[in-house]
Structure of Homospermidine synthase:
Amino acid sequence: MNLPGKLTFPGRVLLLGSGSVSQCLQPLLLRHLDMDFTRLTVMDFEDLADKIPDTLAAGARYVRHRITPENLATTLGEHLGRGDLLINLSWNIDTIDIIDWCQRNDVLYVDTSVELWDPYEDQAAKHPSERTLYARHMRLREHARRWGADGSTAVVEHGANPGLVSHWTKVALEDIATAMLKDPDRLPAPLEPQRATALESALGDRDHAQLAMLTGTKVIHISERDTQIGNLPKRVGEFVNTWSIEGFYEEGIAPAELGWGTHEPALPQGAFTHETGPRNQICIARTGMTTLVRSWVPIGGPIIGMVIRHGEAFTISDKLTVWDGDTARYRPTVHYAYLPTDAAMASLHECRMRGYELQQDQRIMADEIVDGADELGVLLLGHDLNGWWVGSQLDIHETRRLVPGQNATTLQVAASVLGAVHWIVRNPRRGLCVPDDLDHEQVLAVANPYLGPCPSVQTDWTPSSYDPFARYAGAATDGESWAFERFLVS
């Protein structure tokens, strides 16, 4: 295994949050940043200093402090200045407010999610479309016009997903196109010369929207199955997960949200479209955690996952849209299909039984994990090769060899943040960026050594492969075998 080298950084670093992902990232920063670690500050509103002894031994400071709208500017000004770096792994600090401060003060920035000060404010009174990540991204775009394209680099939503999955989508599209061109025996019918020429041109230009359209990709699942198991059973009244419980709860009770493909014949029941912006997404008036779909991962095989809202459903579908004037000529359907650990699924079920009231007792699985892996990737469907999966198959045993004391889920996120940090430091004047704006090869060169096996494989799986009643379903799909309705589980 070839680990990434050292990255020289002369400035200060403020790491907001010292939860599970932050605790996993910190050893990677110590290992791969060439800097004076007395210039590293870790800040959290909880007293978690005892969880990061190696970071503190390297010279870093721990500050216990809660950032609020009133003290944000003062707090950041005490720890950061021109050319410094803010790594935001906290939750419920408004993304626009914190990036605005960074833009005005020329500070580099990265986070793993787009946040609000209070995501639950008036949620019962809000229309489902107002509670979406789409609405948050529209607000971000408004402010980005004021910040300018050449401001200090601010990368949003760069974790495992969103984040790595955008890079794996590019890998998959390139591999599908290459296979179609160089191994035509795999195809159901020969490529016509004009299409082959267009594919070669798009591959050479790294035009991933054209590659998606020319390969015939209709659906992109972010398919994940987490099989990590522990020797400490979940107790009644306890929420157990392998990553942030508050973050999982917030997105789980939000409306299901997905990029909506141009091949789709009809909206699902309870769906709403958007009136402004690229209109590349829809939302459904039901929680993401109760919206279930069929999907597939290479080791785990067929899964039933949840359409939890995630930023990649917006950015991937947006970046892969091919426009004809103001009309979307082509766009794939993009959404998450998430099957977390058995303990997390039991926790969600109990939470739902409690009227979606989050359990007070909470536990992030760590040392009690005895086996299992987090198999996370992108599943591209509907093209001439049927299906193709690219992603990470990181198990707990390799995780502990790489970063002792961590689990596979948090290492996948931390590796992605490390890759983003490398790219940001080398590209400091790119303004606001989503993961799809970054060079996927540069980011993956840093992240891949921490991700376990990362296969790129073809599959013959379809949503009806393991459903004995599939031929009776999908009356509203008008014969479209890759329609969203074909994947839905009642």
Q: What stands out?
A: Residues 395 and 469 are 34 Å apart (CA to CA). The two ends are 44 Å apart (CA to CA).
